[in-house]
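Journal club prep — side note

Before the paper discussion, L.F. wants everyone to see what a predicted structure for a comparable chain looks like in token form. Sequence:
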Amino acid sequence: MKDRYTIGTVVVLGLAFLLVFVLVIFSFFFTGLLQKPAVVSFDCMALIISILVIITITSLIFLARNIFLVAKQRKMLDIQDFYIEHLNEMVRVIRSQRHDFINHMQVVYALMKTKKPERAEQYIEELCQNVRFNDGVLYVNMPELSALLIAKEELAADKEISFKIKIDSDLVGLNVKPLDLITVLGNLLDNSFEAVEELPQEKKNVAIKIFQTSKHFVFQTANPGYIPKHLREKIFEMGFSTKSGKNRGVGLASVASVVEK
């Protein structure tokens, strides 16, 4: 939105400058006609002014186009930075789970080695109960989404946030690029986590529900909180944020940019 305002401002100022320039040229020209015989004919002067007008308008169009391209590239870089951040988060979760898996296997091996199969069976059952919650996300027809939800589940556990995932669709037939879907859901979940992070423990709840109707795939996120009416439109503007700090006001703007596609 701000980029459009910037382009509009540049174009308006440029046209205003062009108008003033043309008026000044005509003023000097007609003043010269009144004071002394014209050295340059009116047709020649009109041609010169027309050429200057064309050059100025072309320059303004070129400038506006470049500003628009720079703004578009900046928005894409913001989205790519966000995606890379989530990829790093997923890698961290995978490394953590790999490390935990090795530890669990060592425990099971030690229990079996010491002739305690009952204890090993009990340990495996407890381990399966802890990871059973992840099973649902593995059946969706988009591995990137599964990885995101697993990463967010790990993040929620670190922040002591109750994160509930309910998936009632395998997303077969969803015609959305994984990058776009991850951008939208990742930002929405990050905002939900931030919204409840400082709340009392009993209110630190975030939920995501994925289901399918006869016409649409639906992704719903929910968390305790309230957005004032006068801020509901502004929160989707690039750079706007109710929180202090650097690199704020990008997430929901990226969501809006993807949804507008």
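L.F.'s comment for the group: Residues 246-250 have pLDDT under 50 and may be disordered. Keep this in mind when we get to the figures.
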